[in-house]
Structure formats: structure tokens, C-alpha cells
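Consider the following assembly input.
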Amino acid sequence: MPGVNVPSTSHRVAIQGEHGSFSEEAARRLLGRRVQVTCCATFPEAFQQLRSGRARRLVVPVENTLAGSVHENYDLLVEHGFHAEAELDLRIRHALIAPRGVRLDAVKFVYSHPVALAQCRKFFAKHPRLKAVADYDTAGSVKRIVAEGRRDAAAIAGPFAAAVYKARILLRNLEDHPGNFTRFLVIRRDRAARPGPDCDKTSIVFATKNIPGALFRCLAAFALRDINLTKLESRPWHGRPFEYLFYLDFIGRPDRAPGRAALAQLGEYTSSVRILGCYPRHR
Amino acid sequence: MPGVNVPSTSHRVAIQGEHGSFSEEAARRLLGRRVQVTCCATFPEAFQQLRSGRARRLVVPVENTLAGSVHENYDLLVEHGFHAEAELDLRIRHALIAPRGVRLDAVKFVYSHPVALAQCRKFFAKHPRLKAVADYDTAGSVKRIVAEGRRDAAAIAGPFAAAVYKARILLRNLEDHPGNFTRFLVIRRDRAARPGPDCDKTSIVFATKNIPGALFRCLAAFALRDINLTKLESRPWHGRPFEYLFYLDFIGRPDRAPGRAALAQLGEYTSSVRILGCYPRHR
């Protein structure tokens, strides 16, 4: 898949995770194979790379179909005042990966992140002699067994991790659930002068008090203009009782009708509206 | 805090996680200190304990203020047809925990789950000589350093884990963000004959096609009756384009006005509505 409306670039991009992670795969699909990737241990460190200018872009997961929204990254996006400029829905596929020369019948231990292990239950049920061992990261577990030259171990990670660590894929599609997708955003520090011609999706966050009537009125601003919503999520503000944050994605642009009018009306009902980005919808 | 409207019981309850985890703390707060806890490696295993009758109750996280909803547990709740009967908002506090006799100035390595490490950034910035090491679990990292008798290591976990493993709390409240809460539900296999007298909150899941007008009409069923919503979250169904699932919590009951009438109206607009539970709101 070519880069999605982001100029192909040799720029440095920050991700959270090890080389070979799903985040790196998303970054390369979105920004091209030649991009230089900086691996960070945590999301705040990855955002800091962009703030300091050491990275020109940031690629982070914001939502998984099984695990839900990654609120931490929405928070960091708002806190830093950065902007989303592209999205990608990446199918999460798990493969069984071993150091070269290790055959399936030699494998006794299977390392991976607990979430990935839990997503491959049927595989472990079918291979009861394999012992699942929880590790801190999917790609990191491939890195570890290759570095340690293990002859009795494999790891569960994306097929991309096998290529990165020159390991061998023993089995593919271990995941129980084929509907396992993670949505990634490309983040830039400063807002583009205006959204490009193919930008047709907008992400916003807004706050309301007193949810029942207020949210209904907020949605009227979109529904009465036949604007399609693709995400809506409420989030209580702990420490601010009766105040709610909403993440909303709609098909449209903030600088053109009917999106512009909807946002103007929304502003009448809300204590704050922030546009997180306007970008081309991933199809 | 006493058990919240669930009969104090010596019954067996299943959780995901190690002894000393936040899930175990939630289970004991909700069901009483004397409850017997079965620790499971994954959420599906914990649900299986309830299905098979080996556990009488299940306590699982469904939402975290920083990390978002745990869709996997909503899916499992729907798939198994189980019912929620109580909720708890647990404040997630991180403590630095070491084996007895180990002093702060001897600690070189700090083990924990990567999410917990990321939530204690300010602590690591203040103590640059401490090396953070990613592990598979918070309470599990306390278990590990105690079992291995480490004299150079501490772990980050809830204070409850220190009590369970007879370890020592060196420092408290390491978390950057005080607004870190996880919402837990108590799950039972069969629906209660009818909700108890103090049940005043209902969780439902419903599906609509074609989101803009449809969601607006669905919310009208609640807004026009002044029913307060405490959660609303959309979730695309991958593989079913243009179909959306919504999780909605409202203050009210399915067996009394105005909740009953709202659900009847909602049924006119949706392809399916399922009541996940009616239970006393945590205050």
C-alpha cells in the first residue's frame, strides 16, 4: 500500500514500540518504506520526539476493534496541540515466529505480549504442549528469542517482525478473531495551512455539561445536516463531575459546508470544541 | 469499603491477573474480603470459569479513564449472555514495592507492566539512576522480585500487591495522573429474577445501520424522557460495513418508567438491543 496522502519522505518518524512492531508497520505503510523510525518506550516519549523536532511525524494507535480507544494518545494529542493528517486501519495478524533453523516440533515455549497470547486461544488449545509465556512486547519477544539464540522457543508477533529480525514464520493467522484492526494516525506538530483537496474526514473533541439534553443537541448539529458520524465516544472527566468529553469523527471538513455550519452550531452548545485533524478517510 | 449490594459470600470468583492485582482488589472490595479468588491468565479463561460453574462470579475491568474501554470484555459478556450485577470505580494508585529489607538507595531496577511504567514518568525523571524494566504484569512483577529474592530491584504495582506478597512499600502515589480510574463489573451467569430495589443504572448494547439519523433517533428515546446517560460509545463492526454497535449506560431501570418506555422506543429503531445488566450505581 502506498503512502496515504502524506508526501513520501525520508523524514524521521517516532513510534512507541520496538522495531518490527505493528506501529512501525503502520508508519511504513503510511509514510513509505524509506522513512527513518525512532522507537520509543512510551507514548509520551514518542510525542516528545515530535515536540522537540527530533521527529517530523509521529504514528500512534488510537483505537483497536477489540481493545477500544487509546485514551492516552487522545490526551497527548490535545495536550500538545498537535494535528492528525492521515489514518490507517491495520489488520492485526499474529504469526508464530522462530529463530532460523528452529522447527515447529522443537518449540516448547511461546513468548508474546499477554494481549496477543489471549488473542490466539484456539491455537494454544490445538497445540497443548506449547507453553505460553508472557513478555512485554510482541516484536520485542521476537527480538529476544533471536538475540538469545533460543532453540526451544518461538514468539507471536506480526509477520513484519520476522522480516525485521531475520527470523522464520512457522505459522500464520494464529488470531482467533479476524476482525482485529488497529487504527493509526499520522500526527504532525503544526497545522497544515488548510486541508488538502482529498481530506474528507474530521476528528474533533468537545466538552459538555449535563449530558442528556446537551449531547442530543450536539448531535442535532450533525444529524439535521445529514452528516455521517464514524465515531462517537463519551468519556467522563474524573475530578470534574457532570462534565463529559466526547470524541467525534465525521465525514466532512471544517472549512466547507455542511461541516463548517455544524461546527458553528456545536460551538453554541459546548464549553470547548477542538479540531484534532482533517484528513483523507482510509478506505 | 463494604461489598456493594452483592451478598457477602465465600463463593469463588474468577479474575484475570495475578494475586495482588487491581482486579483482585476490586473483587475483594465488591464481594468481601473472604471471597476465594481464581487467577486466570486471560479474560476468556476467566469467563470460562463462570460458564463451567467453577466460579460463581467474575470481576473484570470494562473501562479505564486513560486507556479506554476494554472491548474484549464487552464482547465476552455478550457472547456468553452473562449479566452485570454491580460496578466499582477503582482509583489506580502505583506504589514502589521491594522485597523486605531492600532500601530505596539499593534499588537499581524497577519492574512493571509497560502501561504502569508509562504512567509514572515524573517519578523516573526525578530518579534518573533507576532503570525501568518492562514485565508482563504489575502484581506479577512484585511476585517475581520477591520469589527471586532480588536485593537490587523494586516493582511498581498497587499497594495491595505489597500486602499479598509480604513486600514493603518504599514510596506511594507514583502515578503522574490522579484521574486514573478503572471501572470493574461483577458478572453472574444467570439473570436475577428482577433487579434489586437499589438498582438504578442499566447497561445496554444495541446495533444500528446508517449512523447519522439512526443514532440521533435512538438518543431521542432517552433525551425526550430526561434520562441521564453516563456512557455512550460507538464501535464499528469490521466485516459489517455501515453497521455500528453502541454501548450505552443510563440512569434508570428496564422494568420501570421512564427506562422501560425508552427501551421500547429504542427497539423500534434498532436491529438488536441487549440489556447487559441493571445494578446499583457506584457513588
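The longest strand of chain B covers residues 83-91. Ask yourself how this observation constrains the way the partners meet.
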